[in-house]
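[agent] plan:
  1. take the single chain provided in the ticket
  2. run structure prediction with default settings
  3. attach structure tokens to the ticket
  4. add a short note for the reviewer (M.T.)
[agent] executing step 1
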Amino acid sequence: MTIAKAQLIRGGHFDDNRGRVSFVNDFGFQGIRRFYCIQHGDTQTVRAWQGHQMEHKYFYAVSGSFLIAWVAIDDWHNPSPHLKAESTVLRYDEPAVLHIPGGYANGLKALEPGAQLLVYSDQDLEAARHDDWRFNADLWLDWTKY
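[agent] step 2 finished; step 3 output follows
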């Protein structure tokens, strides 16, 4: 089965004497069912790996910056330890939404103390509970390099 690719939807910002307006105008909220905000107390905490066969996630840095990584899962019950993770850094001062569709596991790490990440989902909480796969954080990426 072929899965959709993750997509970075870039935005921008406008500054004037009143302050800054940040935007990602090419991101639509069609199908979004819920959202939540993640804030790590430090830059050592790793939240990985959470997988979803069906659920789509959308990530936006509200403040600071986060490393976000994702990996396409080959076998949900026994994934290969040799899968290749992809990653990007989301920064508050470079507005963008990262869309990770179903079929992937994702992980994240704050790169600045107090950074906040807004996460949108196309599944309600009950559906998400039935599509929740957890894998060891040590798989697929050396988080200590970041």
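[agent] step 4 note for reviewer: The first strand starts at residue 7 and ends at 10.
[agent] ticket updated
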